[in-house]
Amino acid sequence: xxxxxxxxxxxxxxxxxxxxxxxxxxxxxxxxxxxxxxxxxxxxxxxxxxxxxxxxxxxxxxxxxxxxxxxxxxxxxxxxxxxxxxxxxxxxxxxxxxxxxxxxxxxxxxxxxxxxxxxxxxxxxxxxxxxxxxxxxxxxxxxxxxxxxxxxxxxxxxxxxxxxxxxxxxxxxxxxxxxxxxxxxxxxxxxxxxxxxxxxxxxxxxxxxxxxxxxxxxxxxxxxxxxxxxxxxxxxxxxxxxxxxx
Length: 246
What we know:
About 35% of the residues lie in helices and about 30% in strands. By secondary structure, the chain is an alpha/beta fold.
């Protein structure tokens, strides 16, 4: 497992690394840990999904941890990010970036061990992950719902757009896909013939829904306030549920 630690305080970085190495030794886990002293240093060599877990200090010289995480999330929604900070001020913004956890500094051994336990359980438990199955260019495709950013009707086709902006144009009806996704709380109908995964929405305003990766789609203007409130409620409930699970 590849882990990155981004912290401009060497003592904090070393402290965290030592705890992680202890966890690896006690659990016979193979860890590769890279340390970075700034968000800029990390981003200069970062490649999507090259780390399973990133520990990120929020208060740093130059780019803050929040700013660095926003850069990561532009193309990478899967890598787990754990924020480390001396304040809870940025907790809502951190979880809007799909943080895996938010811990106080200095890092405590018991809490870090729990983060690692939770992460490993999440990585090995995939039986309940829902997939969308379809045919594209005579090939059977399956994608987890979590990878779908946008689904929209275009003429006689449906366009399925993933979080990495890979798009599939398939001969399916909107009703057939909508029926499959209707029970999944992540998907919001923003306009007729269009479903958006709320995990990837960055804003809902001025008649437009902005999605991670500079994607956009129009929304029903008369329902703009209602749609915005549904999205905000979803984000709030997700943050609350993640905190209660800790």
